[in-house]
Amino acid sequence: MNAWYMLAIYVGAILISLALCAVSLAVMIRGVVKKKSLGGRLAFLIAAGVVTAAVLLFTNSHATYYRFNDWIVSASTAQDIVKRYGEPDIDRYTPGKGGSLWYYIYTDNGPIMPDHLDHYYYIALDANGKVTEIMEDVRPGG
Known about the structure:
- By secondary structure, this protein is of the alpha+beta class.
- It folds into 2 domains: 3-61; 71-138, Beta-lactamase Inhibitory Protein, Chain:B, domain 1.
- Helix content is 47%, strand content 19%.
- The chain contains 4 helices and 4 strands; from the N terminus they run ααααββββ.
- The protein has helices at 3-33, 39-61, 70-74, 78-85, and strands at 90-91, 99-107, 118-125, 131-138.
- The chain has a 4-stranded antiparallel sheet.
- Helix 1 packs antiparallel against helix 2 (39-61).
- The chain is elongated.
């Protein structure tokens, strides 16, 4: 899925969650002003808060691409990453020397200035197999 679409989905989910919180807060305030019971209103506010927290947690932990949890990847070794996500599409990692793992994520054929290149989830590793960098990148050489 194109990065533009993912960004739109992330922003949309955050805005919907925040709108839910705003609506539930307005309903709560209205209930307080009219001196009515807050039971159901409070439950709705808590549910909206939980949904908002879940959306924010997901969008922050999967900031590079939705299929890969950046927090887990950054705390993993090369072997852990391969075990969790499978064999990389491009493997340039040599134990003891470092390198990188590349997982294909999409080809940019988007509506706004597409580059028509394959995009990869790039994981740079040091000589000990620890992650040093995570980003979205294109194959070297274009």
